[in-house]
Amino acid sequence: MSEVESTGKRERPARRAFTRDQVVDTALAILDEGGGDALSIRSVAGRLGVNPNAVYTYVASRADLEREVAERVLGQADASLLAGPTADWRDRIVDFATALRLRLLEHPAVARLLMTAPMNGPAALEVGERLLEALADGGLDPDAAARITYLVIVHVVGSVALEVAETDGRPPLAAEADRVAQRRSGFDAVDALRWPRTAAAAGVMADWISAEQFEWGLRRLLG
């Protein structure tokens, strides 16, 4: 019976089989294509060709679905970078944070999602644990390590969210150089008499969304 299942009294369509991974992959594809507003249990079900109730087999709610997607992308960043092979603990954190930034920029809607989705799944906890270890290697006490872990997460998520906010939110984003150039042209319209310091700093401010600025800020944070 490839098309139908017999009940003995009548025949009904066979249930379409799918997995949790397919649910999360589908949700991520919908986010990439349509942004956060496009994601729902119903949209995932429609893409999979199943009843929405079937999706609830794997996720309890849209919030749960968003958390699963955030987990998927966080898990794609290699947390082992925090353990080496680079000896310097600061370099290890920069390497990991840079890799995570690039991963989030590949999925701009997820960058925004991280501002609201709870980061408490296994992948998020793994990232936190490895950050704490790297900071401990730097000689920080547990309290300070915990506080700086939070600051690193804020730096990554906040930087990417602000960067994505200046785009249409759909991958692939324009090349960094093109986006910096667009920002620079926007600063050309700044009234230098009214906002002289802004006009003078326009070149640096245009570069705020760059990888160079991201690393600069992170290294200042780490001391």
TrEMBL record:
Molecular-function annotations in GO: DNA-binding transcription factor activity; transcription cis-regulatory region binding
Residue ranges of the annotated DNA-binding region, renumbered to this chain: 40-59
Keyword annotations: DNA-binding, Transcription, Transcription regulation
Stretches assigned to the HTH tetR-type domain: 17-77
GO biological process: negative regulation of DNA-templated transcription
Source organism, top-level taxon: Bacteria
Keyword Ribosomal protein: no
Keyword Transcription regulation part of the UniProt annotation: yes
InterPro entries: Homeodomain-like_sf, HTH-type_TetR-like_transc_reg, HTH_TetR, Repressor_TetR_C, Tet_transcr_reg_TetR-rel_C_sf
Name the record gives this protein: DNA-binding transcriptional regulator, AcrR family
Source species of the chain: Rhodococcus maanshanensis
